[in-house]
Amino acid sequence: MTLWHIVLLASIACVALKLVGYAVPPHWLEKPAVARTADLLTVALLAALIAVQTLGAGQQLVVDARVPALAVAGLLYWLRVPFLVVVLAAAVVAALLRLWTGMA
Description:
Elements: H1 3-22, H2 26-29, H3 32-55, E1 56-57, E2 60-61, H4 66-78, H5 83-101
Antiparallel strand pairs: 1-2
Helix pairs in contact: 4-5
């Protein structure tokens, strides 16, 4: 099985999962417990993705310029700064740290 076969199978599985989601009766999704779980699951998955992308490099834990950039982004977001400014500030912090320290 090649990489393309795996990509195609994963794509088919994603489309099938999405179609199954449309088959769920709407009144099930309107229950408070289900809505709250869906909201919390979304936040948890996004937080996990951010953690993995910030601290991971293959099988290793890496602390580099992305960590302070994420901290700056979190602080600015907490201060309710516009999102575009948050992203640009985090990018500038990461770029300056990489330039100054030679971090990759």
